[in-house]
Protein backbone atom coordinates (compact mmCIF):
# COMPACT_ATOMS: atom_id res chain seq x y z
CA UNK A 1 0.00 0.00 0.00
CA UNK A 2 1.24 3.46 -0.85
CA UNK A 3 0.24 6.54 1.10
CA UNK A 4 -2.71 8.36 -0.38
CA UNK A 5 -1.77 11.50 -2.30
CA UNK A 6 -2.13 14.71 -0.30
CA UNK A 7 -5.29 16.72 -0.79
CA UNK A 8 -4.55 19.52 -3.25
CA UNK A 9 -6.07 22.97 -3.01
CA UNK A 10 -8.10 23.89 -6.06
CA UNK A 11 -6.05 27.08 -6.16
CA UNK A 12 -2.66 25.36 -6.23
CA UNK A 13 -0.78 25.64 -9.49
CA UNK A 14 2.69 24.36 -10.22
CA UNK A 15 4.94 26.56 -12.30
CA UNK A 16 6.79 24.45 -14.80
CA UNK A 17 10.17 25.90 -13.79
CA UNK A 18 9.78 24.47 -10.28
CA UNK A 19 10.02 20.98 -11.72
CA UNK A 20 11.93 21.70 -14.88
CA UNK A 21 13.49 18.23 -14.79
CA UNK A 22 10.07 16.87 -15.86
CA UNK A 23 9.05 16.64 -19.51
CA UNK A 24 5.75 18.25 -20.40
CA UNK A 25 3.96 14.86 -20.63
CA UNK A 26 5.61 13.81 -17.36
CA UNK A 27 4.46 17.02 -15.69
CA UNK A 28 0.89 16.73 -16.94
CA UNK A 29 0.68 13.06 -16.01
CA UNK A 30 1.92 13.82 -12.49
CA UNK A 31 -0.58 16.68 -12.16
CA UNK A 32 -3.47 14.42 -13.13
CA UNK A 33 -2.38 11.65 -10.78
CA UNK A 34 -1.88 14.02 -7.83
CA UNK A 35 -4.96 16.12 -8.47
CA UNK A 36 -3.06 19.31 -9.37
CA UNK A 37 -5.42 21.36 -11.50
CA UNK A 38 -3.16 24.15 -12.79
CA UNK A 39 0.25 24.64 -14.37
CA UNK A 40 2.19 27.77 -15.24
CA UNK A 41 4.12 27.21 -18.47
CA UNK A 42 7.24 28.74 -20.03
CA UNK A 43 7.63 29.56 -23.69
CA UNK A 44 10.92 27.76 -24.31
CA UNK A 45 9.92 24.25 -23.14
CA UNK A 46 6.52 24.72 -24.79
CA UNK A 47 8.25 25.55 -28.08
CA UNK A 48 10.50 22.51 -27.77
CA UNK A 49 7.52 20.19 -27.25
CA UNK A 50 5.46 22.07 -29.80
CA UNK A 51 2.90 24.77 -29.14
CA UNK A 52 -0.09 22.94 -30.58
CA UNK A 53 1.00 19.64 -29.06
CA UNK A 54 1.25 21.31 -25.65
CA UNK A 55 -2.17 22.90 -26.02
CA UNK A 56 -3.68 19.50 -26.89
CA UNK A 57 -1.79 17.77 -24.05
CA UNK A 58 -3.14 20.03 -21.33
CA UNK A 59 -6.60 20.29 -22.85
CA UNK A 60 -6.98 16.52 -23.11
CA UNK A 61 -5.77 16.12 -19.52
CA UNK A 62 -8.11 18.78 -18.17
CA UNK A 63 -5.22 20.74 -16.69
CA UNK A 64 -5.59 24.52 -16.72
CA UNK A 65 -2.72 26.74 -17.88
CA UNK A 66 -2.75 29.44 -15.22
CA UNK A 67 -0.10 31.65 -16.85
CA UNK A 68 2.54 31.78 -19.53
CA UNK A 69 6.04 33.06 -18.76
CA UNK A 70 7.21 35.25 -20.21
CA UNK A 71 6.92 38.32 -22.33
CA UNK A 72 8.63 41.57 -21.59
CA UNK A 73 12.23 42.71 -22.14
CA UNK A 74 10.84 45.98 -23.39
CA UNK A 75 13.64 48.35 -22.40
CA UNK A 76 15.76 48.46 -25.55
CA UNK A 77 16.61 52.03 -26.50
CA UNK A 78 17.22 51.46 -30.22
CA UNK A 79 14.47 51.20 -32.83
CA UNK A 80 15.48 47.75 -34.07
CA UNK A 81 15.62 46.34 -30.55
CA UNK A 82 12.24 47.82 -29.74
CA UNK A 83 10.63 46.47 -32.90
CA UNK A 84 12.04 43.02 -32.21
CA UNK A 85 10.69 43.12 -28.66
CA UNK A 86 7.24 44.15 -29.82
CA UNK A 87 7.18 41.34 -32.37
CA UNK A 88 8.34 38.80 -29.80
CA UNK A 89 5.70 39.91 -27.32
CA UNK A 90 2.95 39.67 -29.92
CA UNK A 91 4.11 36.11 -30.55
CA UNK A 92 4.01 35.42 -26.79
CA UNK A 93 0.46 36.78 -26.64
CA UNK A 94 -0.55 34.47 -29.49
CA UNK A 95 1.05 31.52 -27.71
CA UNK A 96 -0.82 32.33 -24.50
CA UNK A 97 -4.09 32.41 -26.42
CA UNK A 98 -3.33 29.08 -28.08
CA UNK A 99 -2.55 27.52 -24.68
CA UNK A 100 -5.84 28.78 -23.32
CA UNK A 101 -4.41 30.98 -20.58
CA UNK A 102 -5.57 34.53 -20.03
CA UNK A 103 -2.33 35.69 -18.36
CA UNK A 104 1.03 36.53 -19.90
CA UNK A 105 3.69 37.35 -17.30
CA UNK A 106 6.03 40.19 -18.25
CA UNK A 107 9.60 40.43 -17.03
CA UNK A 108 10.20 43.94 -18.16
CA UNK A 109 13.93 43.92 -18.90
CA UNK A 110 17.05 45.53 -17.50
CA UNK A 111 19.12 48.53 -18.48
CA UNK A 112 20.44 48.59 -22.05
CA UNK A 113 24.24 48.19 -22.25
CA UNK A 114 25.97 51.30 -20.92
CA UNK A 115 22.76 52.97 -19.72
CA UNK A 116 22.25 54.19 -16.17
CA UNK A 117 18.75 55.58 -16.78
CA UNK A 118 16.25 53.49 -14.81
CA UNK A 119 13.44 56.03 -15.18
CA UNK A 120 13.87 56.16 -18.94
CA UNK A 121 13.83 52.38 -19.20
CA UNK A 122 10.61 52.22 -17.15
CA UNK A 123 9.04 54.78 -19.47
CA UNK A 124 9.91 52.68 -22.53
CA UNK A 125 8.05 49.75 -20.97
CA UNK A 126 4.90 51.84 -20.68
CA UNK A 127 5.36 53.02 -24.25
CA UNK A 128 5.63 49.46 -25.57
CA UNK A 129 2.55 48.39 -23.62
CA UNK A 130 0.47 51.06 -25.32
CA UNK A 131 0.58 48.92 -28.46
CA UNK A 132 0.81 45.49 -26.82
CA UNK A 133 -2.03 45.82 -24.32
CA UNK A 134 -4.82 46.35 -26.87
CA UNK A 135 -3.43 43.54 -29.00
CA UNK A 136 -3.39 41.21 -26.00
CA UNK A 137 -6.96 42.17 -25.17
CA UNK A 138 -8.00 41.30 -28.70
CA UNK A 139 -6.63 37.79 -28.08
CA UNK A 140 -8.26 37.45 -24.64
CA UNK A 141 -4.93 37.79 -22.83
CA UNK A 142 -4.07 40.06 -19.89
CA UNK A 143 -0.54 41.34 -19.40
CA UNK A 144 0.86 40.94 -15.89
CA UNK A 145 3.86 43.13 -15.00
CA UNK A 146 6.06 41.29 -12.52
CA UNK A 147 8.22 43.41 -10.26
CA UNK A 148 11.47 41.55 -9.69
CA UNK A 149 13.60 41.86 -6.57
CA UNK A 150 15.82 44.97 -6.68
CA UNK A 151 18.88 42.73 -7.02
CA UNK A 152 17.74 42.19 -10.64
CA UNK A 153 17.23 45.88 -11.43
CA UNK A 154 20.23 46.33 -13.72
CA UNK A 155 20.22 43.17 -15.78
CA UNK A 156 16.74 41.68 -15.78
CA UNK A 157 13.94 43.97 -14.66
CA UNK A 158 13.97 47.69 -13.94
CA UNK A 159 10.56 47.32 -12.29
CA UNK A 160 11.51 46.51 -8.70
CA UNK A 161 8.41 47.15 -6.59
CA UNK A 162 4.67 46.63 -6.78
CA UNK A 163 4.26 50.40 -6.61
CA UNK A 164 6.42 50.81 -9.71
CA UNK A 165 4.54 48.03 -11.51
CA UNK A 166 1.19 49.60 -10.63
CA UNK A 167 2.38 53.03 -11.76
CA UNK A 168 2.76 51.53 -15.24
CA UNK A 169 -0.27 49.23 -15.16
CA UNK A 170 -2.61 52.00 -14.06
CA UNK A 171 -2.15 53.77 -17.37
CA UNK A 172 -4.17 50.96 -18.97
CA UNK A 173 -7.52 49.30 -18.29
CA UNK A 174 -7.30 46.69 -15.53
CA UNK A 175 -8.66 44.13 -17.96
CA UNK A 176 -5.55 44.66 -20.09
CA UNK A 177 -2.63 45.25 -17.71
CA UNK A 178 -2.11 44.17 -14.13
CA UNK A 179 0.66 42.90 -11.89
CA UNK A 180 2.15 39.70 -10.54
CA UNK A 181 2.54 39.42 -6.78
CA UNK A 182 5.49 37.08 -6.21
CA UNK A 183 6.48 36.72 -2.57
CA UNK A 184 10.13 36.15 -3.43
CA UNK A 185 10.40 39.56 -5.03
CA UNK A 186 8.31 41.72 -2.68
CA UNK A 187 8.51 40.12 0.78
CA UNK A 188 11.02 42.68 2.12
CA UNK A 189 8.97 45.75 1.04
CA UNK A 190 6.94 47.41 3.78
CA UNK A 191 4.95 49.25 1.12
CA UNK A 192 3.94 46.09 -0.71
CA UNK A 193 0.93 45.22 1.48
CA UNK A 194 -0.72 48.54 0.66
CA UNK A 195 0.12 48.03 -3.01
CA UNK A 196 -1.47 44.58 -2.91
CA UNK A 197 -4.65 46.07 -1.49
CA UNK A 198 -4.67 48.82 -4.11
CA UNK A 199 -4.02 46.35 -6.93
CA UNK A 200 -6.70 43.99 -5.69
CA UNK A 201 -9.31 46.71 -5.34
CA UNK A 202 -8.69 47.68 -8.96
CA UNK A 203 -8.77 44.09 -10.22
CA UNK A 204 -5.12 44.28 -11.19
CA UNK A 205 -3.71 41.22 -9.44
CA UNK A 206 -3.36 39.00 -12.47
CA UNK A 207 -1.13 36.37 -10.90
CA UNK A 208 0.07 35.33 -7.45
CA UNK A 209 3.26 33.33 -7.10
CA UNK A 210 5.01 31.85 -4.08
CA UNK A 211 8.64 31.16 -3.26
CA UNK A 212 10.55 31.45 -0.02
CA UNK A 213 13.66 33.55 0.61
CA UNK A 214 16.74 31.60 1.67
CA UNK A 215 20.37 32.56 2.07
CA UNK A 216 23.19 32.45 1.20
CA UNK A 217 22.28 33.44 -2.33
CA UNK A 218 24.11 31.52 -5.07
CA UNK A 219 26.38 33.19 -7.62
CA UNK A 220 24.23 35.05 -10.13
CA UNK A 221 21.37 34.98 -7.56
CA UNK A 222 18.89 33.48 -10.03
CA UNK A 223 18.52 29.93 -8.81
CA UNK A 224 18.36 30.36 -5.05
CA UNK A 225 14.61 30.42 -4.44
CA UNK A 226 13.63 28.44 -1.40
CA UNK A 227 11.04 25.70 -1.04
CA UNK A 228 7.94 26.92 0.82
CA UNK A 229 8.62 26.99 4.54
CA UNK A 230 12.42 26.87 4.28
CA UNK A 231 13.01 30.60 4.51
CA UNK A 232 12.14 34.01 5.89
CA UNK A 233 8.88 34.79 4.13
CA UNK A 234 5.65 34.74 6.11
CA UNK A 235 3.81 33.03 3.27
CA UNK A 236 0.56 32.60 5.18
CA UNK A 237 0.45 36.35 5.76
CA UNK A 238 1.01 37.13 2.10
CA UNK A 239 -1.71 34.70 1.10
CA UNK A 240 -4.04 36.44 3.56
CA UNK A 241 -3.11 39.85 2.16
CA UNK A 242 -3.75 38.76 -1.41
CA UNK A 243 -6.99 37.01 -0.44
CA UNK A 244 -8.14 40.08 1.48
CA UNK A 245 -7.45 42.16 -1.62
CA UNK A 246 -10.09 40.12 -3.39
CA UNK A 247 -7.91 37.91 -5.56
CA UNK A 248 -9.68 34.57 -6.09
CA UNK A 249 -7.34 33.01 -8.63
CA UNK A 250 -4.65 30.38 -8.81
CA UNK A 251 -1.62 30.44 -6.54
CA UNK A 252 1.45 29.32 -8.45
CA UNK A 253 4.55 27.95 -6.81
CA UNK A 254 7.59 29.03 -8.80
CA UNK A 255 10.98 27.90 -7.49
CA UNK A 256 14.28 28.19 -9.31
CA UNK A 257 16.67 26.03 -7.33
CA UNK A 258 19.58 23.96 -8.55
CA UNK A 259 19.45 21.63 -5.55
CA UNK A 260 15.74 20.92 -6.06
CA UNK A 261 16.26 20.40 -9.78
CA UNK A 262 18.90 17.77 -9.08
CA UNK A 263 16.32 15.43 -7.53
CA UNK A 264 13.29 13.53 -8.80
CA UNK A 265 10.70 15.84 -10.34
CA UNK A 266 7.58 13.95 -9.28
CA UNK A 267 8.80 13.69 -5.69
CA UNK A 268 9.50 17.42 -5.78
CA UNK A 269 5.98 18.11 -7.01
CA UNK A 270 4.51 15.98 -4.21
CA UNK A 271 6.68 17.73 -1.63
CA UNK A 272 5.66 21.12 -3.00
CA UNK A 273 1.98 20.20 -2.73
CA UNK A 274 2.58 19.09 0.87
CA UNK A 275 4.46 22.28 1.77
CA UNK A 276 1.74 24.40 0.18
CA UNK A 277 -0.82 22.78 2.42
CA UNK A 278 1.33 23.18 5.50
CA UNK A 279 2.54 26.75 5.16
CA UNK A 280 -0.69 28.26 3.91
CA UNK A 281 -2.84 26.48 6.50
CA UNK B 1 60.02 61.02 -13.27
CA UNK B 2 56.75 59.64 -12.01
CA UNK B 3 53.38 61.13 -12.87
CA UNK B 4 52.14 63.66 -10.34
CA UNK B 5 49.49 62.31 -8.00
CA UNK B 6 45.93 63.14 -9.04
CA UNK B 7 44.31 66.13 -7.37
CA UNK B 8 42.12 64.84 -4.57
CA UNK B 9 38.80 66.40 -3.64
CA UNK B 10 38.74 67.65 -0.07
CA UNK B 11 35.53 65.66 0.32
CA UNK B 12 37.01 62.34 -0.80
CA UNK B 13 37.37 59.74 1.93
CA UNK B 14 38.56 56.18 1.52
CA UNK B 15 36.75 53.53 3.48
CA UNK B 16 39.26 51.12 4.93
CA UNK B 17 37.41 48.08 3.54
CA UNK B 18 38.00 49.29 -0.02
CA UNK B 19 41.72 48.68 0.44
CA UNK B 20 41.63 46.08 3.17
CA UNK B 21 44.87 44.57 1.89
CA UNK B 22 46.65 47.62 3.36
CA UNK B 23 47.77 47.75 6.98
CA UNK B 24 46.65 50.75 8.97
CA UNK B 25 50.09 52.42 8.77
CA UNK B 26 50.24 51.57 5.07
CA UNK B 27 46.84 53.11 4.51
CA UNK B 28 47.61 56.27 6.44
CA UNK B 29 50.98 56.67 4.73
CA UNK B 30 49.36 56.31 1.30
CA UNK B 31 46.67 58.84 2.24
CA UNK B 32 49.26 61.39 3.29
CA UNK B 33 51.34 60.86 0.17
CA UNK B 34 48.33 61.11 -2.17
CA UNK B 35 46.64 63.96 -0.37
CA UNK B 36 43.64 61.93 0.81
CA UNK B 37 42.27 63.74 3.85
CA UNK B 38 39.73 61.27 5.22
CA UNK B 39 39.39 57.58 6.05
CA UNK B 40 36.44 55.51 7.17
CA UNK B 41 37.59 52.87 9.64
CA UNK B 42 36.26 49.49 10.77
CA UNK B 43 36.28 48.25 14.32
CA UNK B 44 37.96 44.89 13.73
CA UNK B 45 41.17 46.11 12.04
CA UNK B 46 41.31 49.03 14.48
CA UNK B 47 41.14 46.57 17.38
CA UNK B 48 43.89 44.44 15.85
CA UNK B 49 46.22 47.43 15.47
CA UNK B 50 45.10 48.84 18.80
CA UNK B 51 42.49 51.51 19.41
CA UNK B 52 44.79 54.07 21.03
CA UNK B 53 47.58 53.34 18.55
CA UNK B 54 45.15 53.92 15.67
CA UNK B 55 43.91 57.16 17.18
CA UNK B 56 47.50 58.38 17.51
CA UNK B 57 48.40 57.20 14.01
CA UNK B 58 45.65 59.17 12.28
CA UNK B 59 46.00 62.20 14.58
CA UNK B 60 49.75 62.47 14.01
CA UNK B 61 49.24 62.13 10.25
CA UNK B 62 46.50 64.75 10.14
CA UNK B 63 44.05 62.30 8.56
CA UNK B 64 40.41 62.69 9.58
CA UNK B 65 38.35 59.65 10.54
CA UNK B 66 35.11 60.32 8.67
CA UNK B 67 33.17 57.39 10.13
CA UNK B 68 33.49 54.18 12.10
CA UNK B 69 31.84 50.97 10.88
CA UNK B 70 29.97 49.53 12.50
CA UNK B 71 27.51 49.32 15.28
CA UNK B 72 24.08 47.83 14.97
CA UNK B 73 22.86 44.22 14.94
CA UNK B 74 20.06 45.32 17.23
CA UNK B 75 17.37 42.83 16.21
CA UNK B 76 17.84 40.03 18.75
CA UNK B 77 14.53 39.02 20.28
CA UNK B 78 15.90 37.56 23.52
CA UNK B 79 16.93 39.60 26.56
CA UNK B 80 20.50 38.29 26.68
CA UNK B 81 21.04 38.98 23.00
CA UNK B 82 19.64 42.47 23.34
CA UNK B 83 21.76 43.28 26.37
CA UNK B 84 24.88 42.05 24.59
CA UNK B 85 24.06 44.20 21.57
CA UNK B 86 23.55 47.29 23.70
CA UNK B 87 26.87 46.72 25.44
CA UNK B 88 28.67 46.18 22.15
CA UNK B 89 27.18 49.33 20.66
CA UNK B 90 28.20 51.38 23.70
CA UNK B 91 31.72 50.08 23.16
CA UNK B 92 31.54 51.05 19.49
CA UNK B 93 30.42 54.56 20.48
CA UNK B 94 33.37 54.84 22.86
CA UNK B 95 35.73 53.70 20.10
CA UNK B 96 34.32 56.28 17.69
CA UNK B 97 34.88 59.00 20.27
CA UNK B 98 38.45 57.84 20.85
CA UNK B 99 39.14 57.87 17.11
CA UNK B 100 37.81 61.42 16.87
CA UNK B 101 34.96 60.68 14.48
CA UNK B 102 31.45 61.97 15.07
CA UNK B 103 29.76 59.23 13.04
CA UNK B 104 29.09 55.60 13.91
CA UNK B 105 27.51 53.64 11.05
CA UNK B 106 24.82 51.16 12.09
CA UNK B 107 24.07 47.98 10.17
CA UNK B 108 20.89 47.15 11.95
CA UNK B 109 20.84 43.34 11.78
CA UNK B 110 18.75 40.67 10.13
CA UNK B 111 15.94 38.43 11.29
CA UNK B 112 16.59 36.32 14.38
CA UNK B 113 16.79 32.57 13.61
CA UNK B 114 13.36 31.25 12.69
CA UNK B 115 11.68 34.64 12.70
CA UNK B 116 9.70 35.99 9.75
CA UNK B 117 8.72 39.26 11.45
CA UNK B 118 10.46 42.14 9.66
CA UNK B 119 8.27 44.81 11.25
CA UNK B 120 8.96 43.50 14.75
CA UNK B 121 12.70 43.45 14.10
CA UNK B 122 12.59 47.05 12.87
CA UNK B 123 10.74 48.05 16.02
CA UNK B 124 13.41 46.48 18.23
CA UNK B 125 16.03 48.62 16.47
CA UNK B 126 14.15 51.78 17.42
CA UNK B 127 13.77 50.49 20.96
CA UNK B 128 17.52 49.90 21.29
CA UNK B 129 18.30 53.34 19.91
CA UNK B 130 16.23 54.98 22.62
CA UNK B 131 19.02 54.12 25.05
CA UNK B 132 21.97 54.25 22.65
CA UNK B 133 21.25 57.62 21.01
CA UNK B 134 21.51 59.72 24.20
CA UNK B 135 24.63 57.85 25.21
CA UNK B 136 26.21 58.49 21.81
CA UNK B 137 25.31 62.18 22.08
CA UNK B 138 27.04 62.34 25.45
CA UNK B 139 30.20 61.13 23.70
CA UNK B 140 29.85 63.51 20.74
CA UNK B 141 28.91 60.73 18.34
CA UNK B 142 25.97 60.60 15.92
CA UNK B 143 24.39 57.29 14.96
CA UNK B 144 23.87 56.73 11.22
CA UNK B 145 21.36 54.06 10.21
CA UNK B 146 22.43 52.50 6.94
CA UNK B 147 19.71 50.94 4.82
CA UNK B 148 21.19 47.91 3.10
CA UNK B 149 20.04 46.58 -0.25
CA UNK B 150 16.90 44.42 0.08
CA UNK B 151 18.95 41.35 -0.83
CA UNK B 152 20.39 41.60 2.71
CA UNK B 153 17.01 41.93 4.46
CA UNK B 154 16.92 38.48 6.04
CA UNK B 155 20.46 37.97 7.23
CA UNK B 156 22.12 41.35 7.66
CA UNK B 157 19.81 44.34 7.79
CA UNK B 158 16.02 44.52 7.99
CA UNK B 159 16.23 48.22 7.14
CA UNK B 160 16.14 48.14 3.33
CA UNK B 161 15.23 51.65 2.19
CA UNK B 162 16.02 55.24 3.11
CA UNK B 163 12.35 55.73 3.94
CA UNK B 164 12.53 52.89 6.48
CA UNK B 165 15.75 54.25 7.94
CA UNK B 166 14.24 57.74 8.25
CA UNK B 167 11.10 56.35 9.86
CA UNK B 168 13.32 55.13 12.69
CA UNK B 169 15.73 58.08 12.76
CA UNK B 170 12.93 60.63 12.92
CA UNK B 171 11.94 59.43 16.37
CA UNK B 172 15.17 60.99 17.67
CA UNK B 173 16.84 64.39 17.38
CA UNK B 174 18.74 64.81 14.11
CA UNK B 175 21.86 65.55 16.12
CA UNK B 176 21.62 62.03 17.55
CA UNK B 177 20.33 59.74 14.77
CA UNK B 178 20.53 60.09 11.01
CA UNK B 179 21.06 57.91 7.96
CA UNK B 180 23.76 56.75 5.59
CA UNK B 181 23.15 57.26 1.89
CA UNK B 182 25.11 54.51 0.11
CA UNK B 183 24.55 54.41 -3.63
CA UNK B 184 25.08 50.66 -3.80
CA UNK B 185 22.10 50.05 -1.54
CA UNK B 186 19.61 52.64 -2.76
CA UNK B 187 20.36 53.27 -6.44
CA UNK B 188 17.40 51.16 -7.68
CA UNK B 189 14.82 52.92 -5.46
CA UNK B 190 12.69 55.55 -7.19
CA UNK B 191 11.64 56.87 -3.78
CA UNK B 192 15.20 57.40 -2.59
CA UNK B 193 15.74 60.83 -4.17
CA UNK B 194 12.79 62.26 -2.23
CA UNK B 195 14.08 60.58 0.92
CA UNK B 196 17.52 62.11 0.37
CA UNK B 197 15.94 65.56 0.10
CA UNK B 198 13.89 64.98 3.24
CA UNK B 199 16.88 63.66 5.17
CA UNK B 200 19.06 66.54 4.06
CA UNK B 201 16.52 69.19 4.97
CA UNK B 202 16.35 67.74 8.46
CA UNK B 203 20.13 67.47 8.81
CA UNK B 204 19.93 63.69 8.95
CA UNK B 205 22.42 62.73 6.24
CA UNK B 206 25.25 61.65 8.50
CA UNK B 207 27.29 59.84 5.88
CA UNK B 208 27.44 59.47 2.11
CA UNK B 209 29.09 56.45 0.57
CA UNK B 210 29.73 55.44 -3.03
CA UNK B 211 29.98 52.12 -4.79
CA UNK B 212 28.83 51.02 -8.23
CA UNK B 213 26.44 48.16 -9.04
CA UNK B 214 27.91 45.42 -11.21
CA UNK B 215 26.65 41.98 -12.19
CA UNK B 216 26.77 39.04 -12.04
CA UNK B 217 26.69 39.08 -8.27
CA UNK B 218 29.06 36.66 -6.56
CA UNK B 219 27.86 33.86 -4.28
CA UNK B 220 26.79 35.35 -0.97
CA UNK B 221 26.44 38.73 -2.73
CA UNK B 222 28.61 40.55 -0.20
CA UNK B 223 31.80 41.19 -2.12
CA UNK B 224 30.54 42.24 -5.53
CA UNK B 225 30.59 46.02 -5.23
CA UNK B 226 31.87 47.67 -8.34
CA UNK B 227 34.61 50.26 -8.75
CA UNK B 228 33.21 53.73 -9.49
CA UNK B 229 32.24 53.94 -13.15
CA UNK B 230 32.18 50.19 -13.79
CA UNK B 231 28.46 49.70 -13.25
CA UNK B 232 24.89 50.90 -13.55
CA UNK B 233 24.74 53.66 -10.97
CA UNK B 234 24.55 57.27 -12.12
CA UNK B 235 26.97 58.36 -9.41
CA UNK B 236 27.16 61.98 -10.57
CA UNK B 237 23.38 62.24 -10.21
CA UNK B 238 23.44 60.83 -6.68
CA UNK B 239 26.20 63.22 -5.70
CA UNK B 240 24.09 66.07 -7.08
CA UNK B 241 21.03 64.88 -5.16
CA UNK B 242 22.96 64.66 -1.91
CA UNK B 243 24.65 68.02 -2.50
CA UNK B 244 21.30 69.60 -3.32
CA UNK B 245 19.94 68.21 -0.05
CA UNK B 246 22.48 70.34 1.74
CA UNK B 247 25.00 67.70 2.76
CA UNK B 248 28.47 69.28 2.88
CA UNK B 249 30.43 66.38 4.37
CA UNK B 250 32.85 63.70 3.29
CA UNK B 251 32.08 61.30 0.47
CA UNK B 252 33.41 57.85 1.31
CA UNK B 253 34.17 55.21 -1.28
CA UNK B 254 33.38 51.79 0.16
CA UNK B 255 33.96 48.81 -2.11
CA UNK B 256 33.89 45.17 -1.09
CA UNK B 257 35.38 43.32 -4.02
CA UNK B 258 37.47 40.18 -4.04
CA UNK B 259 39.08 41.00 -7.39
CA UNK B 260 40.11 44.47 -6.22
CA UNK B 261 41.44 43.09 -2.95
CA UNK B 262 43.66 40.67 -4.87
CA UNK B 263 45.75 43.52 -6.29
CA UNK B 264 48.06 46.13 -4.83
CA UNK B 265 46.35 48.30 -2.23
CA UNK B 266 48.14 51.57 -2.97
CA UNK B 267 47.48 51.23 -6.71
CA UNK B 268 43.83 50.57 -5.88
CA UNK B 269 43.67 53.71 -3.76
CA UNK B 270 45.20 55.76 -6.57
CA UNK B 271 42.77 54.28 -9.08
CA UNK B 272 39.85 54.98 -6.75
CA UNK B 273 40.92 58.62 -6.38
CA UNK B 274 41.14 58.87 -10.16
CA UNK B 275 37.71 57.29 -10.70
CA UNK B 276 36.18 59.57 -8.07
CA UNK B 277 37.42 62.59 -9.97
CA UNK B 278 36.18 61.22 -13.29
CA UNK B 279 32.71 60.01 -12.40
CA UNK B 280 31.76 62.87 -10.11
CA UNK B 281 33.03 65.57 -12.46
UniProtKB/TrEMBL annotation, chains A, B:
Segments passing through the bilayer: none
Xref: InterPro entries: IolE/XylAMocC-like, Xyl_isomerase-like_sf, Xyl_isomerase-like_TIM-brl
Keyword Isomerase annotated: yes
Domain of life per record: Bacteria
GO molecular function: isomerase activity
Keywords: Isomerase
Xylose isomerase-like TIM barrel domain residues: 28-271
EC number: 5.1.3.31
EC main group: isomerase
Name of this chain's protein: D-tagatose 3-epimerase
Species this protein is from: Streptomyces hundungensis
Lineage of origin: Bacteria, Bacillati, Actinomycetota, Actinomycetes, Kitasatosporales
